[in-house]
Design a protein that fits this description.
Chain lengths: 484, 1076
């Protein structure tokens, strides 16, 4: 009998092998698992950096399931509406309803204050994870590959802080403390003065420009030197440091290797990342799996999604009406059957059937940055740093690709010159998420055209609190250093 | 897997050598031929004895010298049986033995008096009375402290069950089901309630600690029916009935005219003039699309600006269809169960076959199930008994229009659709239009024309059409089985090897038609989701039991492995070559596929035993050590002990009082654990943070951060004590009272951080939560005569829930002052369902704006709110000032800005004070009527449905509740309902901000079941050769009384309704039970 008991106990003990309790759920991949693979295939670690970029085009990275939580391009729609250039021309589904009239933005518990905060800080967090893995923010890096990784991670960290600085502050004040700063992955920190945030952005981008000098990127979704220069130019301009912004713009134009979007490209659909004028953007592939919850679903009337089904996005009528009769961009806008002011010839699905293209498997690319921005920002920087001559030259170079006769630029100076640069920036970059930045740095007030359903005819100043995002309730409730 | 087979083989291959002993086995039955479970079979004057198991059988090794055994059972006279055979069939007593007298713990079955834990047996009759498709809903109201949350009326969907409060803040709160001794991880819909013999609910730690790491939220032990030797019979049950929407709707506006007049008034207020309101009403901008004007004049000529009412000569072009008429219709419920059972000699068996075919009251919702079960028990050798059962189930369900997304959810749409939006497309004359593809009328998907004519309410959706054109079917095969080998050896030893397996294969196909609606842009869409779960449990257990003098004891030691996995595969495509296909082969463009696995393993060692002295004093104890694959190696193992004591005081001489038939006191203490639920985000393994695998635009891998994982995560554990009293008195009253106190420590807590840190929350073990309450279950036989009886029972529970310790905030190293989760705040001294929201202060009578309470820190003591003095979050604010040592000059005022209103504890809790059920049972001769009424008193829920129905958004975006008639209209109006502004007031978005205004009492009464039963007299069925026959008529969910019509607080855990839920189903059935 003893034997039986011993056998029984032996069996019981035998089954207690560690194997049995080692399971392997596969819904997610864990950092430990990636580490194990990296021991024999270090290239897998690149996935952390591409993960930072994936955050830009993956829906829901703003921490919600809202169909307006689209990453970088989702924020573009928010700010384009807040700048009044993009009109929400139907109130049927209700997405953006309270963004266009700012009512949601005045409510700290509304998700639209949460989404940008969550999204940009998520980018910063992931960039910091890469930076930590490379040895931290002050690491001295020997290998070129690690410098390239560090350069990209820091540029993306700066990207996050830059947009937060523009979206959360009504007007630039270096002493106002709004944003917590994280130089590595860590627990919550107190809010830092905006001047410190700007200094961090400048440091990160300066280092990125240095590190990325020899970097030949694999795809336009990655940050290379001109993109880092472009981000730094915006950061300088936002602080009024136009003299520093100007040479960056010139370097991008002269040495970046990009050409202006022109001729047929103007109405070519803005859906192909290989367009020579695009500096930064994402090649959207079916595997990425975007559907109607995508920028194209929101804006393109040929995609079977919201823009077609009841909530079209159109251009502000008064902005549209400022175009000269010969402006080639007039052709970017609607025709009788689609209704006026619809960007049906600027942004379009190649199928060109209204509401006819499945939003699933869409392969239309995302644009983040193009060289035209720096022709215009260069002109603006020149004008504002006392070099109107150069400003006129740069502006005329650009405008001559858009209208038959650009000689009117020669007669512009002072406010009129700045105003023309502003108009060209808004017009050229409609729907590309740049107008709000311009409104902020240029201290512009925008008066809404009559085709706005909401706040039609209203004037919105650049520093109105309602036209600025608030620190979301989740942050003030859970960050112990924010004590409202 | 291999080692489990090895275990079984080893156990079987051991040669048993016995000397001067022989094995006796047999079966014990009562007068009705039913198996007697837990009877004692003993050799007189020795310590040799055994208890009968679930099919009444026993095995005993007796000395060759023994000549008789004594069979005894509580409350019966012992029977002496001569040992004239090695196989004994024993009949004891005339009195029916109630299965209620046995506690089945899954690892053993014990006479109720010997068991010291808090348990409840569910009356088998009560399960049979109800027309439910699975056991979970049948438990409703049967057990004190057990709540059934039937949040989904779709036929075939099991309900959620909670036992003794809310055991965790963010972790699992669901109990474990054990079917025939094996933890059941398959779908409950695969177990036919007609196959269930008994249900025991284990509530306290003395009972549940046996389940160690899984027992923290209670255990529901289900035993299936078995055959009894010598009692062959055929039982047939047939039911026919109807499912219908029997519970009331919200009182929403029904008249398109009233709706438009109300909308018009909103615009008048919002736009500032009656003229503007009329011009805008149907302008397709701020107003509704002109296409949806159902009257015979243009929108601007509908309303008389002078009166705000329709001009008298305006007529409708047509009457729009009402969604409730189109969506909700009574439908059939059919059920047939046939079983054959019996046994000869050493073998007993039961087979059963069941068919359930039911349709819900909502559109094409439907559930069809076939079940087949085989159960065989056989005494293989004198010392070895084997049982095995196998259950196969196939079910098919269809659930179109039940999406969790509101715009395609029929229940949301019915409740919220403005009454002027019908469901059919109309031409200018108001006539319907022939559908060239499917025939019949064309449906309105709200996308009729581009720009300005979209329907503001759920455009691109039409549920009535989806029901006709689309498919959403699930087909499930479930196979589960369990095999036991029980050997007796030496004196009083038993060894058990048990293997149980459940596998379930669920295949779903969702097809969206190419012509109309959501997938018309992609020429149709098809998606297929396969979920296969497999789980198994292997148990090896050795037991020893003996009686020495007045001392009786048993001890068992066991080892158990459990494994569970889910394999998911998803594939989809667009463009249907065959518009009705359900196969991807016939689809033109396939999307990238997806698959993943979730799994976990659990290994356990445990021992349990009991001791009793003179059948008066009882002791139960158990200890279990569990290791889970869900935690990192160093945090994997946990130990869970428990002990219980019982005292049958009525056995004492000094308590020999006539009035008291039975009196027992019980007490227990124990620790149980929980490893968390299986949702994706909690698949923590301490193996680092979790990333989503994505693909970069150049096709390389990209890892997008998903979930942070605390490497130290481990068991959540519950320390629970229980004190109980059971009393039977006056031969007609029985009652049980239990006080329980459960402290959950190392809580699974989703600790929120400021999202600027890059993560919004991380699950940690921290904090401590208390649940305590008093449970009662009282049954009285009010009238007890030969032909007439009236029984009345009431059970219920109180509940107090309190967070004892708040988790540490790593940013400060101090306990977090408060965690705000939806409308609730979680902080020390409060429950998990204490409302932390804005306090509503009514409507400003001058301007019609909503007002809320604002707290402020009057730093400059000027008695008013200055910049920076307002407080958004009271608890957090005060605690910050306490830490920094600053004083707070707390003042209170009223604000019309919801953003300035202060979140604070407003005093309402979501937790009821007392809840339970009463049951009345009246019988006269063969006729009986049973009724069960559920009750719950106390507590509030935030009625989000009502909130949405009181909204002031763009007109035509939703309907209104009739209460909108009481809105503020003119200065001086005293009301709680603010003015409407047609979405145009600068405050419009905030007028209906969440606040105490929408907190609704969650008291309810629900007539859960009424059954009229007629049993044919014995004299009649004897003549026609039947063993028994009864007819009955039964109704479920017949009537409810709640604070607001349409609000069903019993359909959700918190009392906050799920806005996309299938509202409770009512059922009326007639049935027939015949036994041959």
């Amino acid at each position: 009998m003893k034997k039986l008991l011993i056998a029984f106990i032996a069996v019981a003990l035998f089954s207690c092998s560690d194997d049995f309790l080692s399971t392997n759920p596969t819904e997610f991949v864990s950092s430990d698992r990636i580490g194990e693979i990296a021991e024999f295939d270090p290239s897998i670690l690149d996935g952390f950096l591409t993960g930072v970029y994936a955050t830009m085009y993956t829906p829901g990275t703003g921490g919600t399931t809202g169909h307006d939580d689209l990453g970088h391009k989702g924020m573009d729609i928010f700010t384009d509406m807040m700048s009044s250039d993009m009109v929400l021309a139907g109130l049927n589904y209700g997405w953006y309803r309270g963004v266009t009239d700012y009512t949601w933005l005045e409510d700290i518990s509304n998700n639209r204050n949460y989404v940008p905060w969550r999204y940009y800080y998520r980018v910063i967090f992931q960039a910091n994870a890469v930076i930590d893995a490379l040895g931290g923010t002050d690491a001295v890096l020997e290998s070129e590959a690690s410098r390239w990784s560090m350069g990209q991670a820091k540029a993306m960290r700066a990207y996050g802080y830059f947009y937060l600085s523009q979206l959360l502050q009504t007007d630039y004040d270096p002493n106002e403390a709004i944003l917590p700063i994280y130089l590595s992955v860590s627990a919550n920190t107190p809010q830092a003065p905006m001047g410190e945030v700007m200094a961090l952005i400048e440091d990160d981008l300066t280092e990125a420009i240095d590190y990325l000098d020899t970097f030949d990127r694999g795809g336009k979704f990655e940050v290379n030197k001109p993109v880092a220069q472009g981000l730094l130019a915006y950061a300088y301009a936002a602080q009024g440091k136009y003299a520093e912004a100007l040479p960056l713009c010139q370097d991008i134009i002269n040495n970046g290797g990009f050409t202006l979007v022109q001729d047929d490209e103007i109405t070519g659909g803005f859906n192909e990342v290989t367009t020579p004028g695009w500096m930064w953007g994402a090649n959207i592939t079916p595997d990425i799996g975007l559907n109607l919850v995508s920028w194209w679903g929101k804006v393109d009337i040929f995609t079977y999604s919201y823009a077609w089904a009841g909530d079209p996005k159109t251009i502000d009528e008064s902005l549209f009406n400022q175009m000269r009769p010969s402006d080639k961009r007039i052709a970017q806008w609607g025709n009788a059957s689609y209704g006026p002011y619809v960007p049906s010839q600027k942004f379009w699905n190649p199928d060109r059937t209204i509401g006819g293209s499945s939003a699933d498997n869409n392969t239309m690319d995302y644009i983040y940055m193009r060289v035209a921005e720096f022709h215009l920002l260069g002109a603006e920087s020149a004008a504002k740093s006392g070099n109107e001559g150069m400003a006129r030259t740069m502006l005329k170079n650009f405008v001559s690709t858009r209208v038959d006769d650009a000689s009117y630029v020669d007669g512009l100076s002072g406010g009129a010159l700045i105003g023309e640069i502003s108009f060209q920036t808004r017009m050229e970059l409609w729907g590309e998420g740049k107008s709000y930045l311009l409104m902020k740095r240029n201290d512009e007030s925008r008066t809404r055209g009559s085709n706005h359903i909401l706040l039609s005819g209203a004037t919105i100043a650049h520093d109105e609190p309602r036209a600025t995002f608030l620190i979301p309730q989740q942050e003030s409730l859970n960050n112990p250093f924010i004590t409202d | 897997m291999k080692r489990i087979i090895l275990t079984l083989t080893l156990l079987l291959s051991v040669a048993f050598v016995f000397a001067q002993e022989r094995a006796i086995n047999g079966v014990v039955r009562d007068a009705d031929g039913e198996a007697v479970i837990g009877a004692t079979v003993r050799v007189p004057n020795t310590s040799i004895g055994a208890l009968t198991d679930l099919d009444g059988s026993f095995t005993l090794r007796v000395p060759n010298t023994a000549t008789e055994v004594v069979v005894s059972y509580v409350g019966m006279d012992p029977v002496v049986v001569p040992l004239d055979s090695d196989y004994l069939e024993v009949n004891i007593g005339d009195q029916a033995v109630m299965i209620e007298d046995i506690v089945v713990t899954g690892y053993s079955q014990v006479q109720r008096t010997r068991f010291t834990g808090a348990t409840a047996n569910v009356d088998k009759k009560a399960v049979e009375d109800k027309s439910t498709s699975d056991i979970s809903e049948a438990l409703t109201g049967e057990v004190a402290g057990l709540t059934v949350i039937n949040g989904n009326g779709q036929p075939g969907t099991p309900a959620a069950v909670r036992i003794r409060g809310f055991g965790s803040v963010n972790g699992n709160r669901a109990p474990v089901y054990v079917v025939d001794g094996v933890i059941y991880q398959g779908g409950l819909e695969n177990v036919n309630p007609n196959d269930i013999a008994s249900v025991t609910v284990l509530k306290d730690a003395a009972a549940t600690a046996l389940y160690g790491a899984r027992g923290a939220n209670g255990v529901i032990v289900v035993t299936t029916k078995r055959g009894t030797t010598g009692d062959s019979k055929i039982q047939v049950q047939a039911k026919y009935g109807s499912n219908y929407r029997g519970l009331p709707y919200y009182d929403v506006l029904q008249s398109p005219e009233e709706f438009i007049e109300t909308a018009w008034e909103g615009l008048e207020n919002g736009l500032g003039s009656a003229e503007a309101a009329s011009a805008t009403l149907f302008d397709g901008g701020i107003g509704i699309a002109p296409y949806y004007n159902i009257w015979d004049v243009d929108g601007e000529f509908l309303i008389d600006p002078a009166t705000g009412q329709f001009y008298p000569n305006v007529n409708r072009r047509f009457n729009p269809e009402r969604r409730r008429d189109e969506f909700f219709n009574p439908s059939d419920r059919k059920e047939v169960n046939v079983s054959l059972s019996g046994g000869e000699g050493k073998t007993n068996y039961r087979t059963s076959f069941g068919l359930l075919d039911e349709e819900g009251y909502f559109l094409a919702s439907q559930f069809k199930r076939y079940t087949g079960r085989v159960d065989i028990g056989h005494q293989v050798k004198p010392w070895l008994r084997g049982t095995m059962n196998l259950n196969y189930s196939n079910n098919e369900s269809n659930g179109p229009g039940q999406s969790g997304s509101s715009s395609v959810n029929g229940f949301f749409l019915e409740r919220n659709a403005p009454p002027l939006f019908g469901i059919l497309l109309r031409d200018q004359l108001g006539n319907t239009i022939e559908d060239p593809i499917f025939g019949g009328p064309l449906y309105d998907f709200g996308d009729g024309q581009f720009m300005g004519n979209a329907r503001r309410f759920s455009s691109l959706s039409n549920i009535a059409a989806v029901n006709r054109y689309d498919t959403n079917v699930n087909n499930e095969n479930g196979l589960s089985g369990q095999a036991d080998l029980i050997a007796s050896f030496l004196k009083n030893f038993t060894a058990t090897a048990r293997f149980g397996v459940q596998t379930q294969d669920n295949r779903g196909s969702a097809r969206t038609n190419p012509y109309y609606g959501q997938a018309s842009g992609s020429n149709g869409a098809l998606s297929k989701t396969d979920n296969r779960t497999l789980s198994y449990t292997a148990l090896q257990m050795v037991g020893y039991g003996n009686q020495i003098g007045d001392h009786e004891f048993s001890i068992n030691a066991a080892h158990e492995n459990q494994y569970w996995e889910l394999r998911n595969r998803f594939s989809s495509g667009i463009g249907l070559a065959d518009p009705f296909t359900l196969e991807l082969r016939n689809v033109l463009e396939n999307n990238p596929g997806d698959s993943f696995t979730r799994d976990f393993a659990l290994e356990s060692y445990f021992a349990f035993g009991d001791y009793s002295f003179k059948d008066k004093y009882f002791l139960n104890a158990s200890i279990r050590r569990d290791g889970s694959s869900r935690f990192a190696e160093e945090n994997r193992w946990g130990t869970f002990p428990a002990v219980g004591i019982g005292w049958v005081a009525s056995e004492e001489e000094f308590l020999q009082v006539d009035a008291i038939d039975f009196l027992r006191l019980r007490a227990s203490y124990g620790e149980t654990g929980d490893q968390g639920d299986f949702s994706a985000t909690s698949l923590y393994r301490g193996g680092g943070d979790l990333y989503n695998v994505g693909v970069s635009p150049t096709g390389t891998a990209s890892f997008v951060f998903s979930t942070p994982v605390d490497p130290n995560i481990t068991w959540e554990s519950v320390n629970q004590y229980n004190v109980g009293l059971d009393v039977n008195a006056f031969s007609r009253l029985s009652a049980s009272f239990d006080y329980f106190n459960k402290r959950t420590v190392d809580l699974f807590f989703d600790r929120r951080t400021g999202p600027s840190a890059g993560i919004a929350l991380i699950r940690v073990n921290d904090g401590e939560l208390l649940n305590e309450g008093l449970e009662f279950d009282v049954n009285g036989e009010i009238i007890k005569q030969d032909n007439f009886f009236v029984n009345l029972g009431i059970n219920g529970s109180t509940l107090r829930n309190e967070l004892l310790t708040s988790p540490i905030d790593p940013a400060t190293g101090l306990p977090k002052a408060i965690t705000v989760s939806g409308s609730y705040g979680i902080s020390e001294g409060k429950s998990v369902y204490d409302f932390y929201t804005r306090a509503y202060a009514g409507v400003n009578a001058d301007n019609g704006l909503s007002q809320w309470v604002q707290f402020y820190d009057d730093v400059n003591s000027n008695g008013m709110v200055d910049d920076g003095e307002g407080i958004l979050d009271l608890v957090d604010y005060v605690s910050q000032r306490e830490i920094s040592g600053e004083t707070v000059n707390l003042m209170q005022t009223i604000t019309t800005e919801s953003n300035d209103a202060t979140l604070h504890y407003t005093g309402e809790s979501g937790i009821p004070d007392v809840f339970g059920a009463t049951r009345l049972n009246v019988g006269w001769k063969g006729i009986s009527v049973t009724g069960q009424l559920l009750y719950s008193f106390g507590g509030y829920g935030r009625d989000g449905n009502y909130q949405a129905l009181m909204d002031d958004a763009d007109i035509g975006g939703g309907n209104w509740h009739e209460d909108i008639r009481n809105r503020w209209m003119n200065p001086g109006d005293i009301t709680n309902i603010p003015a409407l502004t047609g979405g145009q007031g600068s405050e419009s978005g905030n007028q209906n901000a969440s606040s105490t205004r929408f907190l609704t009492k969650r008291d309810y009464l629900l007539l859960n079941n009424v059954r009229l039963n007629y049993e044919l007299p014995k004299t009649i069925f004897d003549k026609i050769g039947l063993q028994g026959a009864q007819f009955w008529l039964s109704g479920d969910n017949l009537w409810s009384q709640t604070e607001r019509s349409g609000y069903f607080p019993f359909a959700s855990e918190s009392g906050i309704p799920n806005r996309e839920s299938y509202d409770p189903l009512s059922t009326v059935t007639t049935g027939l039970n015949v036994t041959f």
